[in-house]
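Example complex used in Figure S2.
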Amino acid sequence: MNPNPAKKIINDPLKCADDLFEGLVLAYDGKARKVGTRSIVMNDLRPDAPALLIGGGAGHEPIYHGLVGKGMADGAAIGDIFAAPPPDIVLEATQAVNRGKGVLYLYGNYAGDVMNFDIGAELAAEEGIEVRTVIINDDVASAPIDQKNNRRGVAGLVPIVKLASAAAATVDTLDELARLAQKANDHTRSVGVSTKPGSIPATGLPTFELADDVIGLGMGIHGEKGVALIPMCTAKELAPKMLDIIFGDDLPLNPGDEIVFFVNSLGSTHMMELLILLKEARPLLEARGLKIHQTIVDSIVTCQEMAGVSFSITKLDAELKKLWDMPCESVGYTKL
Amino acid sequence: MNPNPAKKIINDPLKCADDLFEGLVLAYDGKARKVGTRSIVMNDLRPDAPALLIGGGAGHEPIYHGLVGKGMADGAAIGDIFAAPPPDIVLEATQAVNRGKGVLYLYGNYAGDVMNFDIGAELAAEEGIEVRTVIINDDVASAPIDQKNNRRGVAGLVPIVKLASAAAATVDTLDELARLAQKANDHTRSVGVSTKPGSIPATGLPTFELADDVIGLGMGIHGEKGVALIPMCTAKELAPKMLDIIFGDDLPLNPGDEIVFFVNSLGSTHMMELLILLKEARPLLEARGLKIHQTIVDSIVTCQEMAGVSFSITKLDAELKKLWDMPCESVGYTKL
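Predicted assembly (672 residues):
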């Protein structure tokens, strides 16, 4: 059997998380440092400020850890491939980002992450560090409105982390940081589709199976079940199907509302396709009277070379817009 | 036969270039506009300044046209998929970016581009617009040193366009802009490898063939012949093979020299792999005494969902470093 059917350019297939982590630290050119086993923390943090810690499994780069940066998160706790960071890694990162004003945990809603960050918070409490938690659950296709707490965190985490990071750069209390991060989450909705699986680095095997003639509508970034399998279709047909799922949710999107619109590739879907989808989606947003304050077209929330796209909408009120307009710089997302 | 074996999310397979172009203009949120048939030009250009026009075939997004931006190129002439922009499109873009001080054409060395931009320059001359040309030829693996003029332009175009754009934002004459763009090109070298083809949007067929157990060392972004087919190998083995090709070229890289190091995915190669390659490459750069002023890890020069990576090195002297450190913002590359 071919030991590397996906032709991945890696070293030891079982050490990808550690290897990519070392590369990530180098990608920061001295602006961030390695902490403990597998955490990355920015140097030159604002003193006497509440801290923002993000994290999650590896293999989805540039998220989560590539969203550490200037005007972005203070640090990240990094798990193994597709696995939550263990509590001791959460703790080491917590200790490193804390500047006496407590730490906000901000991460996607996956069972392993919730468990490990919660234990990390308990360990931190024993060390006298106050922790609050905001869980990202922007994926409208992963559970109905009345089970919102079961929804996963997907690509909306990029605008959410950006907004929370801008808050962390300006506010003085952990309560205020938690309030703004929660608001950013509450103002964000995403829906994704998948056309092809990625591969598991340790085995080279596909992350899931999907027939050649269908699209997984609402499918999660690891191949979690979505709302439906639909026939393969054009961008013009797909864009309204995706947006209607967001429009049908409980976030009020009224004429005159300003939004950030993020078109994300899940890995190998090419930017050509993202741009064609944007061409189809934008008139639908404008037809509802929405004003697009900023468009992002990029591949930031991925699962290896999985093919597929997601749309995320973040509604900006005056408070969030001010946070949005602050510049930021990270491996995963940079804006002037 | 499956009409869309690559499962591309597009509309009419023969109209991808026009469709993505419309999406690209929308991605600029009003900062750039459509000009003529298929050109994009920034609004609010600096008056009485020499202009920088880039361009090339579509299908490689975010290059070339996604490098138009603030502190980036003034405009771009866009071809069909994998095809040079025709002379009338070059002319329409030239007229739109010109502010009375002439226009610098900066594009990759491909026969069709050279021919069409040259004809465009003749047409522009008839309109009284002065044009200079700098051709990007950073791909060391595409021809030996004594045939440097035959070398293709590949991922090095990102730092080259960034530097030339910073020059365009500051200098007053076309001669000075051309000198700095040429210098940026002369200070840049790239080498790429491929592991899997992308697909041709019009047909869904692979862009080239490559056996499952080999890597195309030095292969071009459309599958052009490189220096060798080598057995599939690890990141640790591949990084020195790639860097040695650059080190063996004629750009002096001496202890203490400062560089920009750009690790680029050709499409579907995941950032995990880029980071693992960075982990392996950076110590080799440092072992030569090179100082990495900035690392870029991203997917900017692509060919649909082709898999593979490239390394680009740009050597910064004091003049180029000053240009490098200026902020820029575009769909393809943004820095604070």
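Chain B touches chain A through 70 residues (CB under 8 Å). Chain B has two domains: 13-186, 188-330.
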